[in-house]
Write a structure and sequence with these properties.
This protein is globular. The chain has a single domain, classed as Nucleotidyltransferase, domain 5 (2-Layer Sandwich). It contains four helices and four strands, in the order H-E-E-E-H-H-E-H. It has helices at 2-19, 58-61, 69-86, 104-114; strands spanning 30-35, 40-46, 51-57, 93-95. 43% of the residues lie in helices and 19% in strands. Helix 3 (69-86) runs parallel beside helix 4 (104-114). The termini are far apart. The longest helix has 18 residues, at 2-19. GO terms for molecular function: 5S rRNA binding; structural constituent of ribosome. InterPro entries: Ribosomal_L18, Ribosomal_uL18_bac-type, Ribosomal_uL18_bac/plant/anim.
Length: 119
């Protein structure tokens, strides 16, 4: 039981350490990533107004069968970049939300870059 609490507090500490250094605006929003074992979610957030500009989740991209979770995260990043271009957003700040920058989190960022966002 103790190890579960310790892991949770470590994730929260990493999350706060990252968040105190970055912030999103209307022109350069923050991409916040949340990852679970099955799904991955991403949002474009304007921290000045406190609004979510656009969001994407794996459930939308899960319709494609035969792909790995990393490939699905890459497609989700491209879908988020497409939504960002609809709102005339070309640049964003990446918030890994306490997760390590590799695997599905990195694939989502790479998909967003390929979709046209500058991170």
């Amino acid at each position: 039981m103790y190890k579960v609490n310790l892991r949770k507090t470590n994730i929260e500490r990493r999350k706060l350490r990252v968040r105190k250094k970055i912030s999103g605006t209307g022109k350069i929003p923050r991409i916040s990533v949340f990852r679970t074992n099955k799904h991955i979610y991403a949002q474009l957030i304007d921290d000045v107004k406190g609004h979510t500009i656009a969001s994407v989740s794996v459930e939308v991209e899960k319709k494609v069968k035969g792909k790995t979770k990393t490939e699905i995260a890459f497609e989700a990043g491209k879908a988020l970049a497409a939504k960002a271009t609809e709102h005339k957003i070309k640049e964003a700040v990446f918030d890994r939300n306490g997760f390590r920058f590799h695997g599905r989190v990195k694939a989502l960022a790479d998909g967003a870059r390929e979709g046209g966002l500058k991170l």
